[in-house]
Each structure stands twice: as structure tokens, then as C-alpha cells.
Amino acid sequence: MNIQFQNPNVLYFLFLLAIPIIIHLFSFRKYQTIFFSNFKLLQNIIIENNKTKSKLKQLLILISRLLALTALILAFSRPYIPSEIQKTPSSTVAIYVDNSFSLTTENQYGILLEQAKKKATLLAKAFDINTEFYLITNDFSNTDEIAYTHKQISEKITGIKSSHKRKTISEIVGRVNNIIKNKTQNGKLYIISDLQKNIIDIEEKAIEPSLSITIIPLEKPAVKNIYIDSCWFEDPTRKTAQQDVLSIKIKNTGDETQKDLPIKLYINDTLKAISSLTIPGQSSETLKLPYVIKNKGAIYGRVEISDFPVIYDNNYFFSYQIPEKIKILLIGENKYIESVYLNDSSFIVNTVTNNQINYSNLNNYDVIYLTNTISVTTGLQMSLLSYLENGKTLVISFANKVDLTNVNELLSIFSTSITETNIKNTSTINNINTNHFITKNVFESINKNNLYPSVKKYYKIKNASTAEVILKLENEDSYLSYQNHKTGKLYIFSSELSDSATNLMQNPIFIPIIYNIALYSTSNLPIQFDIAEENFVQLSKNINSEIVTITNTDKSYSFIPQLRKDILNNNNYVYLHDNISQAGHWSIFENEEIIQPLSCNFSRAESKLQFLSISELEQIIDQKSISNISVSDSPDELIATTIQNEDQGIRLWKHLIIMCLFFILVEVALIRLL
């Protein structure tokens, strides 16, 4: 048995044991003999017996006194049997308290966060008064690097509140490594958590050799939660006075079927739709809610359900913007395209020649038509590529005679090419893809007897594998195709939009197609952001100011975000950093004018309520052969003892104090009874 001493210098006091021995040797009692006239022999026997009994009594008293003094000296030297986990006592202790949203749930003992705080307080009390404490939560604030005393750490633990943030074990260990890296003593990290599966990612190489880790799991809550996972629009463009359909995905993590869960949809704080949904246990369902709005500008939406006790994921916020004006640029004149938009005040159309293009202003337009294209300069190619990558819409139509090498250089960027030129065989456009968003719901029915547009001259296009053909010729050649490039939309006509090439412009299908190309050019920005992420938001328009302001809807809180301007692409971005901590709606202002809406939701990672058992966690630790990490599931009343044994091994000083008191009682008994 390897016994070590916390205060080994106290052992020098064992030399004091010589004092009672010396006193015993030189402090002799002298017996006086009294002679009687009778019973002389008997008297001598009694005297001899009394002398023997007295010597034995004094010897026993000396032994008990020496044992009591030895036990007392050893107790002050603080002996202990070292544990296999920690070879020397820790003077630096970090306590991580998981305060993520999943700890706002309850088990049979109450709210998990309160249990975590209680355990943290108990284990802090188990350490020596000279211990330095560090308190870590998911917030990762600057106070993490402040060392606390016994009294201070208890106060800090009491003040912990739940947070929308979540951290993995590797992030927690990395944080603690930075704190103890300049410490010469061994460090100890206690992780108090409900052990959601998505935070377990630890590797031994990530742990400093001087750091040992103990994980204290909390008893799991009932894994029952119904939450709104996500919302989205299948139709990429929002419109006024027309029906929009919002898809809502709802998940049930419990085992029981949730019947007739009420779901409400609010638009600009007005109830627009209400429905109900039945969701089997351990599954998800998607509900589609249709609604119609009449106003333009910023639109704020909210989906709401009722589910207890986990409530932070019962709302889902989203927003988008319907622009007052859609800006269109024609590079090259085309009277037919202009005529579609001129009579609608929702559109602004500008026409320029190749020599009049202002590259720095291209991103101010929602749609660019590159009409009757013969060739494209390298500068324009790069600008249009950047334009598409910023979520804009580009429409290309070719002149009757093109510079094939130059045009294919542009098209190759999109994995597209012209393979045959000047095809003059007249063909008919007789196949319309009514599943594409610009043609969907345009035609109630297509009568085969209708007069389809014809094409006299066109180019044979080899489209990218991801492209969709919207209009197809009778010989199966593509006439109008669509594909995404990053977040942008690209349309390619295979002929010049002129009377010499086609009569499409006189056909009824031309106007709705051209109209919808512009109408569907907007609403490319995300409808929501997760608060848990380090987000940046692209602004939907260029701004002139150096400062923008983000304000919540009730105007109770606002901040000035970091603004960055991409000079090359002429885009503006705002960085949210850690300024938004509450789910809800926000507005981005420039000079008191709303640029665009912004909606933020808490991450749904905490909503899944998938936990590791102690045996599963220990299995992971064994599989990864992590030597300096252990799991402790001691009840609260044994936390102090368990922590002390883990940190300093089995402490023996209490046992020695008891032994000291026992030998003192033995000494008293010997004096009184013998």
C-alpha cells in the first residue's frame, strides 16, 4: 500500500514521542514497607503483586499515550492513499456546468440545471481552502479566466442561468487547456452535463497531460419533446395578392403519438392560418399552410405550437421582403422584353449598350438581360459571374451570328456550350415544362391544337447536367433552359429574340415567362438564421452609409453591427457576432429606413433530447483509450467523499483522529480502573 503525506514535514514531530518515554523511565515511585507483627509472609506476597500490577499499569498507560500522540501527529501530516487517476492533489480546479436549453427540462428530482448547480457547489466544498477554482459555462465569457476562492465560486455557481449556446467536450477541454497551460500544478476538470450525444467528441490528444477530467452525468429527463424543426417555401419567390404555401416540419421525440397538435401561423402579428397535425412517436411530419398577403415590404412570420415542459422551440420565426420595385437591366436593346415590363409600375427597366456598362452598379439590378449576344469581354464575364454568385438573375440570348469561341468561354463556366451554330431548319416549340416555377400555375391546361411558336434560327445547346429545360423544340433540342449557379439563377435562350429568328414574342406564352423571370428573381436570402451560429448577413441592396443599425421589433434593444463591404463584388455584409441572444424578429436600418427584415431562431440541436448512458460513455472512453478521463455517478451526499478520493486518494486523517481519541479514552480507563 503506497501511503503518501500532504504535509510530510509534520512527521518530524514524532521525535516528541521520546519525551513520555524519558519521563516514564526516570519517574520511579518509591514504595514504603510497613511491618506488621503477623502475616509477614502474606504481606510480602501482596507487596510483590502490587509492584507488578503498578508496573504493568504504567506501561499500558505509556503505550496508549504514545499511540494517541502518534495518531495525532500523523493526522496533522494529512496521509492519504493516492488514487489511480490523480497522483498528486490538484490546486487548480475547473468546473463546467452545462447550462444549455436541454437542462431546463425536468426529471424526478426537479429541473436539471438546478441539480447541476447543486452538484457543482458540493464538489467545490470538497477541496482544500487554497484551491483555485475556475467556472466554465456554455457562454465562454472573459470571466472564465478569473480564479475564484471557495466563497466566491459558490456565489458564481448560484448565479448561472440557462443559455441558448452549446459547447462540445472538445471545446470545453480546449478552453480549460488555455487556462491551465501556464500553471505548474496539476489541473482537474469536472464536467457536469446531461450528456447529449451531439457534444461527445473528445480525443485523448486534445487533453493536456497535466489535466485530468471527471464527467458527472445528470439523471436523464423524460425524453419527450415536440418542436418545430424548420420552415421553408418550395416556391422561391414571394408575391402579393397570390397564395404562398409555407412548409412546416414538426418532430416528436417521445414514444407516444401526439394527436391534433394545434399549429398557428402569424404574418405581421396577424393570425393567417390555423391547422392541426397528428405526429406518431419518434417521427416527424410536414404540414403545408397556405396564406395570402396584400402588402409589400418587410414581412414577418411566426409559426407557433404549444408543448411543455420544453418551450424554447415552440416558436419558429421567419421573414422575407417583397420589393417595392424590381430593377431590370437590358444590355442591348430589345423592344419585346421592354414592353412586358413598361406598363407595370413594379418594374424599373434600364437599357444600355456594351460600351455604357457600369460594372460597379450591376449588383443594383435584380435581373440582367444579355440580349442578342455576339461576344462578351473578359471584364463583363467576371462581373456577371460575381453577379450570379450573389443570388441575382441572368438571362442570355444569342445574336444570329456569334463569336463561338468567346461565347463558349463564358458558357463553360456553367458547364454549358454551343455545339452547333446557325441551325436554320424551322422547328416548333411544342413542349412546355409546367413543373418549373416560372411556368407552374401559368397555364390551366395546354391544348395540343394551340398554335405553338416557331423558331427559324437557333443554336444547339449542350446544357449542364443540373439544368432544367423549360421550353423544348419538337426535335428535343433545348430552347429555354434554367440552372442555378451558386445562389443565382441563369436562363439561356438558344436563339436571338427577334423576328428574324422566332415568333415567340407574339405568342401568349412569352409574356408570362418573361414576367415571371423578373418576379422570381427576388427572395434569394435565407428566411431565418440560427442564433447559435456565428452569422453574417448579406444585405439585399447596396448602401451608402458606413453604419447600419439592427433593432428588434418592439425597439427595446438595438446595436450597430460590424459592416463589411466587398469591393470586388460590390456587396455589403453585416456580422451579428454575439449581439443577438433572443429568438425573434429584427430589422436592419440605414438612416431610419428598413433595408431588410431579419429573423433569428434558437438552434434545434438541443431539441433532439438524445442522451448517452453512463455505460455508453464509458464504452467510448475505453474504445478511444483515454487514460485521464473518468465518470462519476455518486449521489449528492457522497460527492464530497468521492471527489476527495479521486483528487487526493483515500484520506486517512479522520481515521487517525478517531484513533487518537480512542487511545486517550483507553488511557483514562487505565488510570481510573486499574
Description:
With 674 residues, this protein is an alpha/beta fold. The strands form nine sheets. The protein has a nine-stranded mixed β-sheet. Strands 6-3-7-8-35 form a five-stranded parallel β-sheet, sandwiched between helices. The chain is elongated. It starts with a strand and ends with a helix. The model has no long low-confidence stretch (mean pLDDT 86).
- Please tell me how large the radius of gyration is: 41 Å
Parts with pLDDT < 50 across at least 5 consecutive residues: none
Instruction: Give the end-to-end Cα distance, rounded to a whole number of Å.
Output: 38 Å
What does the largest sheet look like?
A: 9 strands, mixed
Question: What is the helix tally?
Answer: 12
State the shape: elongated
> What structural category do the secondary elements indicate?
alpha/beta
Q: Beta-strand percentage?
A: 25-35%
Q: Within the largest sheet, what's the order of strands?
A: 17-16-18-19-26-25-24-21-22
Fraction of residues in H or I helices: 10-25%
Work out the oligomeric state of the chains in this entry.
Answer: single chain
Number of DSSP-assigned strands: 36
Summarize model confidence as the mean pLDDT. 86
Compose a concise summary of this entry.
The chain has 674 residues and is of the alpha/beta class. The protein is 24% helix and 30% strand.
